[in-house]
Amino acid sequence: MRIDIITCLPKLLESFFAHSILQRAQQGGYVDVVVHDLRDYTADKHRRVDDYPFGGGAGMVMQIQPIATCIRALQAERTYDEIIYMTPDGERLNQKTTNSLSLRQNLIILCGHYKGVDERVRELFITKEISIGDYVLSGGELAACVLSDAIIRLLPGVLNDETSALTDSFQDNLLAPPVYTRPAEFEGLRVPDILLSGHEAKIDEWRYEQALTRTRTRRPDLLEE
Ligand code: ADE
Hints:
Layout: E1 2-7, H1 10-17, H2 20-27, E2 32-37, E3 50-51, E4 61-62, H3 64-75, E5 82-92, H4 95-101, E6 106-111, H5 119-124, E7 128-131, H6 141-152, E8 185-186, E9 189-190, H7 193-196, H8 200-218, H9 220-224
Parallel strand pairs: 1-2, 1-6, 5-6, 5-7
Antiparallel strand pairs: 3-4, 8-9
This protein binds adenine.
Keywords: Cytoplasm, Methyltransferase, S-adenosyl-L-methionine, Transferase, tRNA processing
EC number: 2.1.1.228
Domain tRNA methyltransferase TRMD/TRM10-type: 1-224
C-alpha cells in the first residue's frame, strides 16, 4: 500500500511516522508513506498556499492551484483508489471505514488548514471526506495521522501477532474484553481465576461475555447497529 499525504506542515507528520509500529511497517515494506509539502507546488513566488476568502470573513482559505498541481503530479505516476480530505464536516471515521480502506492500494490524504480548502478542490478531486470526531482541530494533520495509523496496523504482517488486530475493540461491533498480565495478584486484586485455568474454550467464552457486558454498559449503540 502507498499513502501520499499532502500538507503545509510536513515536519509535523514526519516525526509521527518515524516511530514504533508505523516505522516498522515502512521498513518492512508493508506501506510507503510519502509526505508532500504543499509549498513545493505553489506558483506563488512567496510560496503562499492560502488567501483571503471571497466575500470577506475571518480566516484564510487554502488555494486550489497548489493542491491541483500536487494531486495531478501524483496521478500522473499512478492511479489512486481514494483522494481523502480530512475535515470536521466529513463522515465520522469508524472501524468499518478503516477496514475497507486497508484493502486499497494507493491513497491520497489531503490535510486542511485555516478555514479549509477552496470548495472547488472538493468538487474536482476529493472522493471521500473524513472527520475523526465532532471537534475542530487546528489542522487536518493529526486527523491524517489517526487515519493512517488505524489503516496501517490492519495490513497483514504489520502487527507481530496477526490475530491481534482482529480482536481489537470495534471489530464485530464489540468493545474488547479486559486484559491482565503478571503478577496474578497485586495489592489484594486478583486476576479472574478463569484466565489462569488454561481452559481455552472457557476463556474464549468468558472473554466474549465480558466484551458483551462492556459494550452493553459503555456503548449500547454499537449493539443496535
Ligand atoms: N480538521 C480539523 N478538525 C478535524 C476533524 N475533527 N476531523 C478531521 N479533520 C479535521
